[in-house]
Amino acid sequence: MKWDRQSERRRVQTAWRAEARRGRRKKPAFAVLVLGGVLIGGGLGWLGPDLMWQLSRREVTAPVVSDTLSARFGFCHTGGGTNCVVDGDTFWFHGERVRVMDIDAPETHDPRCAEEAALGARATRRLQQLMNAGPFSLESGDRDSDRYGRALRVVTRGGDSLGEMLVAEGLAREWDGSRHPWC
Question: How far is it, in rounded angstroms, from Cα 22 to Cα 159?
């Protein structure tokens, strides 16, 4: 798909008109900045239309994320709970047990070695911190629940997976469909 200079110009003009209607222009310098941006953008259109297409394409396809779920999470064990973290990849939310489906965290209940227990405790604390850090979303995947009856969900905030954050911090692994030893 080829970059369309006219539609880009119309988009900038529409945005300028909307801003002007809202009456937010407080200083004439703002108009100079916008005009300068339009001129620079036009110059880039002559110098690199493919670059302008890529930049404008990112703006169009950027997802709008609305995290609406939140709770205050404590710690709990294997039994039922309300808004609490069981371990690094399992928590209870409004009475439902949820398994973070995109990761595998070390076990804290029946760990196989001291290293797994210590890493599992760190992963559990970190998951609790992440869950308490603000609103989040629960996204379904290809399966709704696992063999233990836990709801399988990807937990996100602002479109970023909390599970991937645990993996990046070395507290979990990406889930590949099977468990691997931590010892």
Answer: 30
| Residue-number span of the structural domain to which 21 is assigned | 5-61
Q: Is residue 179 part of a domain?
A: no
In a domain, 181, yes or no: no
Helices H, strands E: what count in the chain? 5, 9
Look up residue 54 and give its two tokens.
């890529």
Answer yes or no: do 81 and 164 share one domain.
yes
Co-location of 33 and 106 in the same domain: no
The tens digit of pLDDT for each residue in 111-133 reads: 999 999 999 999 999 999 999 99
Q: What is the pTM of this model?
A: 0.64
The rounded distance, in Å, linking the Cα atoms of 44 and 42 is 5
